[in-house]
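Note to self: keep these together.
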Amino acid sequence: MATPINTTYQAIQKRAKELEGDTVRFLCELVRTQSFSGKEEKVAPVIRAEMLRCGFDEVRVDGLGSVIGRIGRGPRSIAFDGHIDTVYPGDLSQWNFDPFQPKVEGGKVWGRGTVDQKGGVATMIHAGKLIKEFGLGGEFTIYFTATVMEEDCDGLCWQYLIAEEKLRPEFVVITEPTNMNIYRGHRGRMEIQVDAKGRSCHGSAPERGDNAIYKIARIALEIEKLNERLRYDPFLGKGTVTISEVRSTSPSQCAVADGASLHLDRRLTLGETKDSAVAEVRDAAARAGYPDAGVTVLDYAEKAYTGKVYKTEKYFPTWCLGEDSPYLRRARQAYQGVMGREPLVDKWTFSTNGIAIAGMHGIPCLGLGPGNEVYAHAVNEACPVEHLSGAVAFYAGLVASLGGKT
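Structure:
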C-alpha cells in the first residue's frame, strides 16, 4: 500500500535513520579501500557490489572506470553524482590515527575521504535503496554515477559520460560536501602557464646573458596586482589568480637561467571566460615589460586505471543555477520535508564535476552532501554520522518531490 502523501517525508526520514548504521558500515568500507585519482580500480568493485546489494536495476563500468548504477526505466532521467577518488593523506605524522583505518567516535566517521567525498557516494547509493523500497522512481530513469579522476581533473568523467556514453540527464545532484546545505554553483577555474625566455651564460659573468628568472619575477609581481582588477559577482564572489609553482631551466647551477615559467591557478567568477582570463595575463606580462611572454592554457592527459587517456583542456567553466529554478524549488520542498527546517542556499568555494555538467553542457545542477568542505583535503578528516542519514533522506525526498509523490 502506498504511503499517504502527508507522511511520505516522515517515512523517508525514519527509514534513513534506521539505515544509518549500515550507511556508516559502507562508508568505512570505502575509506579502507584506497582510491587515488587514476588508481580507483580496487574501490570500483566495492561500489558495484553495494549497488547490486541495494537492488539497483543495472550496474556497469564505463571506459574511464566510473561505476554507473541505474534504477527505473522512465522517460525522464536524473542523476546523482559522487567521485570515488581521494587526495593522498600527506604527512602521516600530522594525523592522529591511520587515515585508512576508519573509526566511529564522537558522533563522526573519521578517515580520508569521509568528507571528500566518499560520504556522498555512500549516501547516494543508500538513497537508491530507499527509492526502490518506497517506489519513488515513477516516471524517472535515475542514474548514480560513482565517478573517477575528479581530484586530478574535475569534470573529465562527465565529459566522457556525456560525449562517449551519451548520458545526458535533465538534472544532476552533486553530492560533494556542503555541510548539509543546498549549493547552487561555484566559480570556474583554469590552469595557465606563463613562459619567459632568456639567454644563458656562465654565472661568473651574468652580464653576458639574459636571466629569464628576473623576467618571470617581474611578471609574477604584475600577476599579483591583477587580483585587484578582477571581476566580482554578488553571489559567487570575486575572480582570483595565484601562482602555485615557479620553475626555471639552465645548463647548470653555475649558469644564468635560459627559461622560466609560472603555473597559475585562476578562479573565474560569472562573466569571466577563458579568453578574458588569457587576455588579462597577457596584459600583466606586457605591463612587466615582456609582451612576448608565452601564455598557455594547459592540457590534462593522464591515464585512467582502465588504461584510457581522455585528453581535455584545463578550462573549467563557472556555473550557477538560477534562484528561480524549479529544481531548486523542489529541493527546498524536500529539504523542509525531511529536515523540518528551511535550507541555507549557498555555493562551494572549491570546484566540482558541475563545471562539465552545467558549465560546459548546460545541464541544471545543485548540490547537497554530508560533511563540511573545510575538512576536505585536511588531516583528521571526519564526517558527522547524522549527516549521513540526513543526506540519504534528502536524496530520496528530492526524487519524491520531483515525481510529485509529496
